[in-house]
């Protein structure tokens, strides 16, 4: 039955075209998501890393020895990346290693912290107090960011699911129920027009959701796939209910 349903979409070239484009564009949409997950792991581990550095420096170790020790105990990907950078810094200077580490994390938080740390080292400032203050500040910042993201992500997912799946499926169910093709109703033009309408609505809904989350450019890679899914649910529900 499923394959017969798929064969019934042969007269929907726009849907098939969007489906092919959508699957092809997944290759561009997945890497930004993975990179963002990696960056957020580093940023969430940053406060505890700074607190451990403060304790180690307060125990009498130098900042280089403290970082080398924390590189072995900090969670991935922060710890392994720091250890790799410290090994590479043996051929240059410690400040160059800090700059290289900040660049490799691709995190604005880590880059600001490393810049402040370099300035504190140059000025001979009390590192223990500075590291502890930075740890508390970034812990509060990350808590707020995580809370905001979890709230907005739930709303964004709800918008996408309703516009791309729920609404097309509901309208398709009603159309198939009251104007079934098995009874001789000729509604091919209506179906084509409304399937395009739901495709455009899905694109707008996905764009709005991405704008809410502040990741519009990343989420636009998935627009053709969501457009295809909305057309599939509308036409599929119509055909399954209407015969």
Describe what you observe in this structure.
There is one protein chain. With 243 residues, this protein is an all-alpha fold. It has two domains: 2-37 and 146-242, no CATH class; 39-143. It has ten helices and no strands. The chain has helices at 2-7, 13-58, 63-73, 78-88, 94-105, 108-123, 127-178, 188-213, 216-219, 223-242. Helix 3 (63-73) crosses helix 4 and helix 7 packs parallel to helix 10 (223-242). The longest helix is centred in the middle third of the chain and has 52 residues, at 127-178. The protein is elongated. 30% of the residues are buried.
Tally of strands: 0
Order of helices and strands: HHHHHHHHHH
State the end-to-end CA separation. 12 Å
Helix count? 10
Strand share of the residues?
Answer: under 5%
Largest sheet: none
Rg, nearest Å:
26 Å
Structure at a glance:
Helices cover 84% and strands 0% of the residues.
Primary descriptors:
243 residues; mainly alpha; 2 domains; 10 helices; elongated
What's the structural blueprint in terms of helices and strands?
Elements: H1 2-7, H2 13-58, H3 63-73, H4 78-88, H5 94-105, H6 108-123, H7 127-178, H8 188-213, H9 216-219, H10 223-242
Helix pairs in contact: 2-3, 2-7, 2-10, 3-4, 4-5, 5-6, 6-7, 7-8, 7-10, 8-10
């Amino acid at each position: 039955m499923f394959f017969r349903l798929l064969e019934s979409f042969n007269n929907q070239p726009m849907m098939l075209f969007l489906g092919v484009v959508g699957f092809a564009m997944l290759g561009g949409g997945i890497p930004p998501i993975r990179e963002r997950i990696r960056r957020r792991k580093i940023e969430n581990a940053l406060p505890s890393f700074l607190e451990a550095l403060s304790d180690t420096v307060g125990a009498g170790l130098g900042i280089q020895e403290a970082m080398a020790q924390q590189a072995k105990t900090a969670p991935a990907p922060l710890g392994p990346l720091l250890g790799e950078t410290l090994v590479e810094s043996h051929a240059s200077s410690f400040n160059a290693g800090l700059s290289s580490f900040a660049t490799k994390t691709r995190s604005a938080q880590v880059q600001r912290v490393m810049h402040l740390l370099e300035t504190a080292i140059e000025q001979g400032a009390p590192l223990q107090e500075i590291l502890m203050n930075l740890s508390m500040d970034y812990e509060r910042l990350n808590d707020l960011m995580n809370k905001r993201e979890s709230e907005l992500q739930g709303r964004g997912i709800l918008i996408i699911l309703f516009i791309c799946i729920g609404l097309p499926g509901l309208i398709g169910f009603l159309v198939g129920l009251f104007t079934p093709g098995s009874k001789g109703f000729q509604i091919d033009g209506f179906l084509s027009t409304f399937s395009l309408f739901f495709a455009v609505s899905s694109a707008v809904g996905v764009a709005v959701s991405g704008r809410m989350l502040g990741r519009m450019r990343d989420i636009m890679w998935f627009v053709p796939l969501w457009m295809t899914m909305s057309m599939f649910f509308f036409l599929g529900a119509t055909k399954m209910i209407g015969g």
